[in-house]
## 1
Amino acid sequence: MPDLVVGVDGGNSKTDLVLADTEGRLLSWVRGVGTRPHAEGMATTTERLARLGRRALAEAGLPATVPVAAGAYFLANVDRRAQERLARQQLTGLGVAGRIVVCNDTLAVLRAGAPDGWGVAVVSGAGINAAAVHPGGRSARFLSLGDITGDWGGGLAVARAGLGAAVRAGDGRGRTTRLRRDLPAHFGLGSVEAVALAVSTGEIPVTALHGLAPLVFAAAEHGDAVARGIVERLGDEIVAMVTALLRRLRLLRTPTPVVLGGGTLQNGHLLLRDHIGSRLAAEAPFARPRVLDVSPVAGAAAEALVAVDAPADAQRRLREAIAAREPPVSVVG
């Protein structure tokens, strides 16, 4: 029987884990809750990942005692080398795999979308991050600690900005916007002010605001100037991240793949994509933006295969299998 590998894409809102063999056969794909070690602690996070791995073995009809040769864990909120080391140590202690690779989840997007393994990757899902790898192996990333390090973007930021703009439109500080009408219905409330009050009291969790982001994008597509400004702000931030990374790695004059991943970039928001494309054409004309066309977990799975020296054909076969399968609907707690 061929050796087994696992690839993990642990995002803020969900965690995908695939189990495969070294011939590139996809054996199972399971989905868990988001990867949030900064909020829950690394021990809780890694124990949950270990349980998710056991669930994948069970779904493949294999006992939990079957050894896994390699695991590649690409995890959100693991932004520094010390965090990577801690995650690796704890996963090793839990016996999840013989060889363990731990990286930030942004690099799963790069691995999945840039076959040669170098370029720039941007993830704009619930949050936002970006990283770059030079052809020579050097890398660049951001500290990514939130607003205290100047970060803004992703679905939650778009949603919060939309809610704030709608409240301002009502109290006279801002321009008129259809968001005042569109947003409260998502929560079954009568006004955006009621939504804001419910968030302030904890009745609506802040993380639940992420569900408002599609409404902001829809309003922008329908010509709402306020919503359009929010979407363009997100595009501007993505371009700023890309150009900063290209500059730091001295790639501004080198044709460089720029892989765009995460829900807000992969869900067909054409206004956002067009804005990014036009801004990059002006500021980084050698950048080659492309929207990721497969789940980022394919990048993690590819890295796991590389860790055991699996042939390129196995990587291709597994990527195609992941692209052809619908992601899991149910979420394992």
## 2
Amino acid sequence: MRKCMLSMFRENLAYVYFIIPFIFNAQNKVSIIFYLLIGKSSFNLKLNNILINIKRSDFYRLYSILGIISYAFSYSINSKKVLKVSFDQENEFLIPLDNLSYEDNNLLELLFLGTKYGANFFTKDIKNIQLREKSFKILIINNKKIIETSDGIKFFIDSIHPGNTIIETFVKNMHMINTKIDLKDKTVVDIGAECGDTGLYYANQGAKVYSFEPVKTHFNFMLKNLELNPVLTKNIIPINAAIGKDGILKFYESTREGGGSGASYLNNRQTHDFQITEVQGYTLRNAKKKFGISYIDLLKMDCKGCEFSLTKDDLEHVENIKIEYGIINDEDKLENILQLLESLGFKCMLYRFTEQGRSSNKLQGCIYGTKISNIK
């Protein structure tokens, strides 16, 4: 009981820590901080004399709203609680602040995180000017909001996870290894493809991509996003399957709209409502046989623990590997993966992928390995 209370208090402190830099626009800033500290389940945010109800479980909505109006060139909130915001005095965005749809929430998060990390967003056509890599167009087609990257890659805003799909992949450029590496006509295997962002990212560089995604909600998002990009989709093979173990696997998946994150067949990482779903699983070795993959130029893995199932046979005919790892179980050791890779002739390096995490590199980070010799 005491341990649970301490954990909740730490979470409450973290909420306050994140909100402090953006709280100054709230008219009831002291109350907001107090409510977060005591873990109040629901409270009002007061902006421009408008009250907006916030649930503790929707903390990221509070965070995004306050962040957006902090960064805004101008903003207003009407009596219907609709936010009108501009970051450049040229392009305006309208977002309801009450009864938000999944699409509305995603747009809020996109505008906040994107602006925070240096992106600019526009709705009007920009002519006679070279776009920045971090320029994104927001457009509406058949009443559906779509975000388009500077390279013309499109995503339905209601079929993404903003922080992963857009911010990590196209704003932070997390999956770029080296601009000198030419992926044209190379084979990439993407394990943990989620909403299709990494598949489209690598296909845009000329690669043929096998995109494995076990969570059905995410897989369906990926299929929708691939439909928006017919030229690139010719080089992407989407596969609804898990990697790590042969057979039908039970997945612990969030029941939140959008499928949440952290789904795994290895352990239940969901802290709130979840469901158990089943999906076909393969070892990487057998997946290569099943789908006719003879050689992998780049193996990208973000699969919530399945990296610890890798074997020597799995890594045969793999040239480069990129793993996002997180140690959850005591039996999982980073040293074991590194020893396996090094025994197969990979030269590895570790690096961090987030500025917010405080965990040791032994517990969380990325591995990039490239094969420098063939060891028999």
## 3
Amino acid sequence: MAGETRHSKAGAKTGAKAAAGLVVLDGAGARPAAGRVWLVGAGPGDPELLTLKALRALQGAQVVVHDGLVSDEILALAPAAAQRISVAKRKSRHSYAQDEINRMLVAFALQGLEVVRLKGGDPFIFGRGGEELEACREAGVECLVVPGVTAALAASAGAGAPLTHRGAAQAVTFVTGHAAKGSEPDLDWESLARPNQTVVIYMGLSMAPEIARRLTQAGRSPATPALIVENASRADERRRTTTLAGLADAAAELSGPALLIVGESMALARADAPAEVEVFAARIAELGGK
């Protein structure tokens, strides 16, 4: 990986585990000036969707603790000397428990280091950023938050389907498709089933049949347009346009990180090339290009 330190992955993980278990005791010994923790949203994957503030934070990092969904191109923007620690989650398995991550961030900061906790999307939208912020505050560690472009915005823009639209979507709601330990979330299905609103379900691909059933039973029309976007904004992005009735079958065709979006304005979604590519192609054609 570009910019990777010379330390072996095993060595890095051992160091991270040690940091996660570090207990700082008050005493007469000198303590380094406290560092800071930055909770940084890396966006949905496309490096061009990284904010300028996120880039500056990343370029100043001494330690980068990152999710598995953060692209290599974005990780390469950190200094070559920065230690990189992956806390990736794969198929419901965590390489680190959340409390270990919390302790790790605090321990590195108390060593006087600038720590960037790099998260896919936005730290505060189903990113457990609030838990890490609380851990830092409880430990007296300064914690700064840099928002990021959440996947729902990239999915909507890429497909050319607005999340809000006059006459079709007066509200938008973000919900999670999974609760703790993979259980079904406790949602107000009747509220979500009301027409003229957009419902965005994060981490709901495997729950698509149950989600469709719940919304339909609560009164949402089976003919309501729906969109599923896998790997939003990335080169391998895939989309499926369907209806609430066809949501389960469409979801079965995909396997990667995906969003389910249900609402009347999804009738505008395009399943083929990204909307911006089509616009540029049309403009080039107008100018006589090939």
